[in-house]
Amino acid sequence: MQRDVIIACDFKSAEDTFRFLDLFKDEERKPFLKIGMELFYAEGPSIVREIKRRGHKIFLDLKLHDIPNTVKKAMAVLSRLDVDMCNVHAAGTIEMMKAALEGLTRADGTRPLLIAVTQLTSTSEERMRSELLIDASINDTIVKYAQNTRDAGLDGVVCSPLEAGMVHEACGAGFLTVTPGVRFADGDVADQVRVTTPARAREIGSDFIVVGRPITAAEDPVAAYRRCVAEFVG
Ligand code: C5P
Fold first, then answer.
1. How many whole angstroms separate alpha carbon 119 and alpha carbon 115?
2. What average pLDDT does the segment 214-227 reach?
3. Is 144 annotated as a binding residue?
4. Domain Orotidine 5'-phosphate decarboxylase spans what residues (predicted)?
5. Active site residues
6. What are phi and psi of 34, to 5 degrees?
7. With 183 labelled, which of 47, 109, 206, 221 sits at a CA distance of 20 to 30 A?
8. 65 annotated as a binding-site residue
9. CATH, range 4-232
10. Is the Cβ–Cβ distance between 115 and 154 less than 8 Å?
11. Quick one: average pLDDT of 209-221?
């Protein structure tokens, strides 16, 4: 799998999104984009179709988590939108992840990549213990959820770049790690805690880095994107 930089399009409207994307219209390399809940819920499937029409790959980050039958049917709808990557919560169990994969697979056998969220980075070990009654360490939980994801036949997980090595060790080098929490060495960390640089993420073995504000809030977003690509893809 070719390493790539995914820009998190955390915009509130289609207008803001297209104003941003217009900056890239002369770029030879069309950025791979992540669309999350805010933009998808605001604009609906039409935003996905329009961005695809402009030639971008899309990671639709909706983190599905429901009973297997509901997830299977929802995934069939997303698959028809022709996205390139989508995701579920591994906490939905192996059965739910298998159902997601089935729903996603088109009649001709093709499908978007499917990855799973292990533990959200906003969940602390303390809260896992006191609220979710999970006594294992957060790293053991991440490894177990990643193994469940692999056993269900999915392609990889979303995790911190600092966890990418651990996940590859447990699940194999071909199992994808898609990693947010990336900052330039001289950049602002903002609200992210466990961060690393694009170059370091590459060394640890991330397959895709998801980068939002270091690109979207940069004075020159195209230059920031190019810098990410140069550091991470080479
Ligand atoms: O702006 P920033 O680079 O922090 O954006 C990172 C993106 O990755 C955001 O869309 C955020 O919601 C997402 N994300 C994350 N940590 C996770 C899962 C997703 O930062 N564990």
1. 13
2. 98
3. no
4. 4-228
5. 61, 63, 66
6. -105, 130
7. 47
8. yes
9. 3.20.20.70
10. yes
11. 97
